[in-house]
């Protein structure tokens, strides 16, 4: 079993930066692709970014690809989301996710992931 815990959320002004972390514990050897999803009030869950096990392949949503970066440190069992030039529409609860699937997956689909964190709130103010 795998547990995921997000941290780093908070209140930030528009144009500012924030770095989220996702710490994995338990049977971390089973984790392959990891990703970030977010859910804003009144909206459905939205894909943000993903990264494969080696870190060599990343996928970012069009809405954030010029502003966000995803990375991971497998020695620390931690994944990161660097968020720059934050906008009001980035306000959401950000969830960390991990897949145990081997091989190619549909990174943008939440059903591809098996483990989920509880989420961390990111609020962007004007």
Written account of the structure:
This protein has 126 residues and is mainly beta. The chain contains no helices and 11 strands. It has strands at 2-7, 10-13, 18-26, 34-39, 46-51, 58-60, 68-73, 78-83, 92-98, 115-116, 120-125. Strands 2, 4, 5, 6, 9, 10 and 11 form a 7-stranded mixed β-sheet that branches. The radius of gyration is 14 Å and the shape is globular. The N and C termini lie far apart (41 Å).
Oligomer: single chain
Proportion of strand residues:
over 45%
* Topology, number of strands: 11
| Unreliable segments of 5+ consecutive residues | none
DSSP summary: helix tally: 0
Structural shape? globular
Rg: 14 Å
Outline the secondary-structure elements.
Layout: E1 2-7, E2 10-13, E3 18-26, E4 34-39, E5 46-51, E6 58-60, E7 68-73, E8 78-83, E9 92-98, E10 115-116, E11 120-125
Parallel strand pairs: 2-11
Antiparallel strand pairs: 1-3, 3-8, 4-5, 4-9, 5-6, 7-8, 9-10, 9-11
Can I get a quick summary?
The protein has strands at about 1-5, 10-15, 20-25, 35-40, 45-50, 60, 70-75, 80-85, 90-100, 115, 120-125. By secondary structure, it is an all-beta fold.
What descriptive keywords fit this protein?
four-stranded antiparallel beta sheet, seven-stranded mixed beta sheet, mainly beta, globular, 126 residues, 0% helix
């Amino acid at each position: 079993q795998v547990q995921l815990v997000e941290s780093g959320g908070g209140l930030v002004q528009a144009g500012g930066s924030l770095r989220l972390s996702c710490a994995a514990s338990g049977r971390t050897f089973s984790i392959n692709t990891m990703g970030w999803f977010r859910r804003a009030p009144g909206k459905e869950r939205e894909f943000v970014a993903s990264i494969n096990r080696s870190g060599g392949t990343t996928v970012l949503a069009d809405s954030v690809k010029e502003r966000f970066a995803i990375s991971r440190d497998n020695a620390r069992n931690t994944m990161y989301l660097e968020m720059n030039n934050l906008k009001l529409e980035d306000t959401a609860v950000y969830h960390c996710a991990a897949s145990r699937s081997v091989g190619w997956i549909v990174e943008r689909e939440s059903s591809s992931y098996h483990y989920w964190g509880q989420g961390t709130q990111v609020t962007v103010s004007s």
